[in-house]
Amino acid sequence: MNHFDDPQAVSRYAENPPRLVPGFADLQRMTSLLLAERTPEDARVLVLGAGGGLELKVLAEAHPQWTFDGIDPSAEMLRLATATLGPSLSKRVHLHEGYIDVAPEHPFDAASCLLTLHFIPADERLRTLKEVHRRLKPGAPFVAAHHSIPEGKDERDLWLSRYAAFAISSGVERAHAESARTAIGEKLPILSPEHDEALLREAGFTSVSLFYAAFTFRGWVAYA
After folding, report:
1. 193, 144 in Cβ contact below 8 A?
2. Phi/psi zone of residue 52: left (φ > 0), alpha (ψ -120 to 50 degrees), beta?
3. What is the pLDDT of residues 162-209, one digit of tens each?
4. DSSP-derived secondary structure letter, 170
5. Average pLDDT, whole number, for the chain?
6. What distance separates the 2 farthest-apart alpha carbons in the chain?
7. Beta-strand runs (E) in the chain
8. Which candidate, 193, 181, 115, places its Cα nearest to that of 151?
9. Distance between CA atoms of 154 and 147, rounded to whole angstroms?
């Protein structure tokens, strides 16, 4: 069973990003600020990888007139998102189970995708980015952040060891941190920062800029 479909694992999901992603809260806040630079007060925002609701909650609380469409393939994670948002914020959020193809077609004012694209192989990642781009108004901002590690086994091993060290320093048991390090290195289709940026441009995005770099994670803002 995928751990995103495991109710027990999902129930503990919110504990993990702050312990595994350096500057996680600031990443969310920077995403909010970057999206707001070029969006109207009543923006409609697409959130890809919305399960859990952490990103949605930050954006919805910061921008009380925005509405959202959240996309995630895990029903369990979407249920957690609903619980995280609570009755009030949920009124402004439409959740959709599936991948980018289930997202509404009408143009959005902005989009985000945090800690998600590293699960998607390069060819499908390009298609996903193209579909996000197609759903955005011209000039709309898109923020993406995920694992992105320089090529070369030695360098990748070094950065993954730093990822594990950060997790351990955050209170994760050493065995669990090392297990996660191994799984990430062996199972995730992680690309290099150069490859990630090239895919954004190939998908049609312009003015691609790095705004976040934290051990194995990178984040970019780009425009449709």
Report:
1. no
2. left
3. 999 999 999 999 999 999 999 999 999 999 999 999 999 999 999 999
4. T
5. 93
6. 48
7. 44-48, 67-72, 93-97, 110-114, 141-147, 206-214, 217-223
8. 193
9. 17
